[in-house]
Amino acid sequence: MKRATHPAETGQVGRAVPRLESWLKVTGRAEYVHNLRLPGMLYGKIFRSTVSHGRIKRLDVSAAQAVGGVHRVVVAADLMTVVPDLHFGPAFHDQPMLAIDKVRYVGEPVAVVLASDPHVAEEAAHLIVAEYEPLAAVYDEVEAMTSKAVVHDELKPAGTFPDLKHLKGKKNTNIALDFHLRRGDAAAAMKVAHRVFEHRFRTQQVMHTPLEPLVSVAECTEDTITLHTASQSPSFVRIEIARLLGWPENRVRVRVPFLGGGFGAKLYIKLEALVGVLSLLVKKPVKISLTMEEQFFHITKHATTFRIKSGVDRDGRIVARECEVWWNGGAYADIGPRVTQKSGFTAPGPYEIEHVAVDSYALYTNLPPAGALRGFGIPQLVWAYESHTDMVARELGADPVEFRLKNILRDGRPHATGTIMRDAATDKVLERTAQLLDWKKPFDRGSGSVRRGRGIAVGFKACVAPTTSFALVSVNVDGSVTVYCSTVDMGQGSDTAMAQIAAEVLSVTAESVKVVHSDTDVTPYDMATLGSRSLFHMGNAVKLAAEDARDKVAALKREAGFPQDATLKDVFKKKYGMQAGNVLGQASFVPGYTSPDANGLTDNATPFWMVGATGVEIEVDTETGRVRITRLVNVADVGTPINPKIVETQLSGAAIMQIGFTLTEKMEFDAEGQLRNASLAEYKIPGFHDIPERMTNETVEAEQRSGPFGAKGVGETSTFGVSPAIANAVHDAVGVRITSLPLTPETIFMKLQESK
Amino acid sequence: MRREVRFRLNGEAVSAQVAPHESLVEVLRDAFGLYGARESCGQGLCGCCTVLVDGTAVSGCLYLGILAENAEVKTIEAGTALDAVQEAFIETGAFQCGFCTPGFILMTRQLLDEIPQPDEEQIKHYLSGNLCRCAAYPQIIEAVQLAAIKRRKA
Amino acid sequence: MQPFEFAEPKTLREAIALLDTEMARPFSGGTALMLMMKAGVLHPERLVSLGKLGLDKIEIGPAGELRIGSMVSLRKIETSEAVRRGWPAISRTLLRLSNVRVRNVARLGGHLAHGDPHTDLPPLLSALGAVATIAGPAGERRAAVESLYAGYLETTLARNELIVRVDVPAMGKKQAAYLKCTTRSVDDWPAVGVAVVLDGDQQTIFVSAATDKPMRLASVDEVEQLNIEGDLHGSAAYKRHLMRVYVKRAIHEARHPSR
User: Fold this and answer.
1) Average pLDDT score over residue span A354-374
2) Where is the domain boundary, A589, A608, A633?
């Protein structure tokens, strides 16, 4: 693949540059931690809890230890000889590396077998014997609010989030966070509203299933440790491992090559703490590489219950909305509290509503932990508010699109938090979606056993704030450019985007820029690659760092008495006596943000909004209830795209993923909290035959003025509206309303029978 | 327990000591340092572990290494220059994280060998045994169609 | 997975002798076997490969019947011109059976002997009146494919018996179809599978997937008598309903093939 090193003649930003790592990926040579092998490395196989809540009465590892080739079988007490406190987590320090005294969900890690042959480790793990004294368990998020079955004896906030401090030491509760927003007086407004509508919606627990399952490797010396890990948040891993070990940060190195998918699964601490302490314990490199099945026991997406109530006036304006959301966080909080709060404040939807009340609760239950999954809580909220808004519109006899446009939150108007909307093309996105679906034209719903329907939904998301990104950009003496940043390319094209931004500033081609992958010894701090924040935050940092480098080069030439078109080599030769060296530009970027007050109100809730709408046309086979998507359109506001091709693939990929969460995916538990379908044979993700017959992905003309070259994130945007658009289309086709995901053929068929 | 298995790997005569329970993916990885075929679902459903044995595509994670005896084994690492399929995947942006990509490329080559001008249904059908969680499916269809054109021109 | 002995006998007699123990399993394509071993469901100490027994031919017999050796890969059957011309329902069914890589490796004998009611060929071959030739220590015997199934993953084959060949009668004027219904992603184990063969006024119907083994029905009404249990593919009531729908659809498909 030719890498152009001559100066660029055309703009680098706005160009459909093929991904920089293309050759590596099509030849199978891209580096993934999945493939990493180190000399002397031991493989760790995790032995897991078989009960959902219990006290460990007996743990007998002797038979496993005796298996030939087993190096060591490790339990929590062993780890505690290295590190006194095994608990980690971004919001709460509630999750132990290995279970101590108690297990809180089926699949929780209890012990680890280390062996140089992974087959031996696996066989030995089967020989470990554990006995539990069962404790009362709770699985439902609403039940967990008041249940006597309490998952954690005492809450242990990590101190990272100021709004969790008040929970320290709290007992007898499963509520890990409660977020409240009050604007005006919703209760009073409901009483005098012309019409009031109330509905309840549910979503199911699902899993990201990246095709490279979670994997981490640790190797150590006397006083340094290196984690090679498939992680979206290397900087966080370094900070947290340093904290756990009581070491300075510079003794902890975290390296991340490419990720075989992330989608939010590979965030914060997953396997890193465990492999790190194991390697310190046995003084050998340790790798834990999960199987596809095992991933289900480490991180998932919150199931939810959402009660939503709207008061509408005679003109069809929504005057009040009450939102009560319960988030099923599983046994360990992970980043659930942030989902509860940061997504919670968008629960009323992208509508201008004078009186708003939001109560959002993060609950502990005895299920596998839930955390960040593409959309970060927004898809669950949009599912409810866009199904509800559609139902309200139809009840009022209003056109669903017109009703939305009448109420939509437009630029310059205040959001529920009080923040004025800026650079959020909500109306444009909705209008274009309706236009693409020919919404105003009559639609033939058919009359035979196959019926047709169409539906639309619009959603929005705030970006997590405040967060920091640092970047370094080096201009080497031969004019070539290197970017150092801790943003992780998990397939969303961040390497290419950062290269395009630096190239634009420095007038070179994007293809010629080298982007150095995350290595905390080399690349500076970045909050994490999540929530569609990187293009905006790191993109801004890279742009500023490139400008810094550019300015420094110009200053150098001036000071050395050279014209601006002189080569850097000549300048260096004169100034330093050597034609070697580089000019390093640096920058940090933290956007403005104001913390919400006690009522959840703030005038600066987010550095940017993501806005996405989806429209679908479907067929319903009324004999079986099966849905077929004949047409799907995604329209998004992504500001001005840096790479239009990559943007398109992000819109299409996220929507197809969301189709899986809408129609076919569900983690199925039995009455004892045992997961019954932890494998791709029984947990069905979309394949070629599940994609819409026709798909259109568009961005509206827009600019994020505070974004690098007018751009902002796109990775999650087309997850927002997919689920409710499909449910709205089902209702349009056959007149039944499903309020729970997934929309299985049986659910639709049974509802059809009921309605007859 | 281990026996010597002799076969041809990417055009070269090789041999390896293989235990009966080792899969072909494990042999390729551990004995030859080839990582293009990866075990992901472990059940033959995702295609990340696709390897060609005597010209047919198999799921390497379910294929015993000892069965490679005397066979012609080809992985994504075979060859030096990019072929029409690889070029087409790059031009249409038919991958994101890239983990499933080698499997898709090998299967696409098989498809085009059998059906040089496949229609969309045939493409979806032949590749339905390959999963992509990034869901690059629409772009992959374009890539296959472009590769067919490139092959025809060559 | 635990290590095991991998035997490669050159004769049928040798193979049968090696199978005369609890801890041995025959190995044809190995797809289903490998899955069960990786899942820890089976721990055979010996695998007996059937690859060197010369059971890999497709021929037309003297009565115009299709004779398929038990070690013929499903893919070879799928792409056989003779099968496409003479038994198109088999080719069409194979097109949707799992995926290409599985079909490249899976063999007819292993597919039939697995005894999983979710697989596609058992109900179809039963409906087509296929007959299996089975080799054992006492010699060979013949049995209708429909008689091979006793229950979920249970066949009527003895531990040391091997299917060596399957014969499918010539179609003549008969029409046949196999349809399956999946309830999650389109490519999934079926909730319901229905094979139908029409011969003038006569209808032969075999249903599977929702039942423990392929079941012969005299008419769609007999769906009510079937023992069906709910699972991740659907409740019992829903699967029973699907079966009624798909029996009718399969009959229609047999009369008016869509491809």
Assistant:
1) 97
2) A589
CATH of residue A666: 3.30.365.10
Domain B84-153 grouped into CATH 1.20.1530.20: no
Instruction: With CB atoms and an 8 Å threshold, state whether C232 touches A676.
Output: yes
Token reading at A610: 């993501």
One domain, residues A440 and A472: no
E strands in A396-502: 450-462, 469-476, 481-484
Does residue A532 share a domain with residue A495?
A: yes
Strand, helix or coil for residue A220: strand
Mean pLDDT of the residues in chain A: 96
**Closest approach of chain A CAs to the CA of B135, in angstroms?**
5
Clarify whether residues A132 and A241 are in a common domain. Answer: yes
CA A137 – CA A324 distance, rounded (Å):
24
What's the confidence (pLDDT) of residue A341? 87
Rounded to an integer, the average pLDDT of A257-264 is: 98
State pLDDT tens for residues A190-212: 999 999 999 999 999 999 999 99
Could you say which residues of chain C have pLDDT below 50?
none
Active-site residue, A716 included: yes
Q: Are residues A605 and A694 in the same domain?
A: yes
* SS3 of chain B: helix, strand, coil, percent, to 5: 40, 20, 40
Same domain, A639 and A739: yes
Contacts of C192 in chain A (CB under 8 A): none
Residue among B42, B64, B130 minimizing CB distance to C30? B64
Closest CA in chain B for residue C43: B21
Contact: A119, B133; criterion CB under 8 Å: no
pLDDT (tens digit per residue) in A628-672 = 999 999 999 999 999 999 999 999 999 999 999 999 999 999 999
Using the 3D structure, point to which of A257, A289, A321 is the last residue of a domain.
A289
pTM: 0.97
A50 Cβ under 8 Å from any chain C Cβ: no
Q: How many CA atoms lie within 13 A of A721 on its CB side?
A: 33
pLDDT at A160: 75
Alpha carbon distance B40, A300 (integer Å): 18
Torsion of CA C22, C24, C26, C29, to 10 degrees: 130
Alpha-carbon span C25 to C15, nearest angstrom: 10
Average pLDDT over residues B87-101: 98
User: Structural domains in chain C?
Assistant: 5-49 (3.30.43.10), 175-255 (3.30.390.50)
| C185–A687 C-beta distance less than 8 A | yes
Total domains, chain A: 3
Decide if C4 touches B, using CB distance below 8 A.
yes
Q: Which domain holds residue A234?
A: 34-136+214-289
> Distance (Å) from the C-alpha of residue B137 to the closest C-alpha of chain C?
15
Is the residue at A375 inside a domain? no
Is A579 found in the same domain as A519?
A: yes
Domains of chain B, residue spans: 3-74, 84-153
- Beta strand C154-155 with C202-208: parallel, antiparallel or unpaired? unpaired
Predicted confidence (pLDDT) per residue in A368-377, tens digit: 999 999 999 9
Q: Which CATH superfamily is domain B3-74 in?
A: Beta-grasp domain (3.10.20.30)
Catalytic residue among A617, A703, A716, A754: A716
Verify that A519 and A668 share a domain, yes or no.
no
DSSP code per residue over A433-455: HHHHTTTTS-----SSSEEEEEE
Residue A521 and residue A479 share a domain = yes
Question: Of A556, A547, A549, A551, whose CA–CA distance to A576 is shortest?
Answer: A556
Q: Minimal Cα–Cα distance from B76 to chain A, Å?
A: 6
B107 and C35 within 8 Å at the Cβ level: the answer is: no
Would the CB atoms of A689 and C183 count as touching at under 8 Å?
A: no
Residue A202 lies in a domain: no
Cα-flanking dihedrals φ and ψ of residue B99, to 5°?
-70, -35
